[in-house]
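Retro notes, item 3 of 5
We never archived the inputs for the FE2/S2 (inorganic) cluster complex last cycle. Fixing that now. Sequence and ligand:
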Amino acid sequence: MNVNGAEHSFHVDSTDRLIDVLRERMGLKSVKEGCGTGDCGICAVLVEGKLVNSCLMLAAQCDGRRVVTLEGLLDDPVMKRFQGSFVANNAAQCGFCTPAMLLAAWDLAKHSSNPSTGEIKTAISGILCRCTGYYPILDSIREGCRKEARP
Ligand code: FES
Ligand code: FES
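Structure as it came back at the time:
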């Protein structure tokens, strides 16, 4: 599979999950495990450009596909905007949900530079913030989506 722009080959069992390959074998620690059952969205990654829960996906399903984690977007100018807006708005409390929130925000920004609050809520609806600090997250995403926002 292609992970963050580089080709990788793995021998996997038929039951190996994508999250374990990314986190344990590749050391991509932005991919976190919360529930392990598809309920919290903390393990989100992009597969072929779509946000998915990596705890529910088998590694073998990603054969020949493009997988992107937060580590692969750290130099991306749009992601830098979100990193800046999350810091400016104190949107990370414990930070556990932050990588998934940033990926969801980045995905939303591909489609909208001025999303409504409803659109932002929909974009992050699959991701639970245990600290429940949702308002700063909404503000950060709204701010970061604006094209004129500085990285
Ligand atoms: S750890 Fe994957 S959805 Fe919760
Ligand atoms: S900041 Fe703690 S889970 Fe969201």
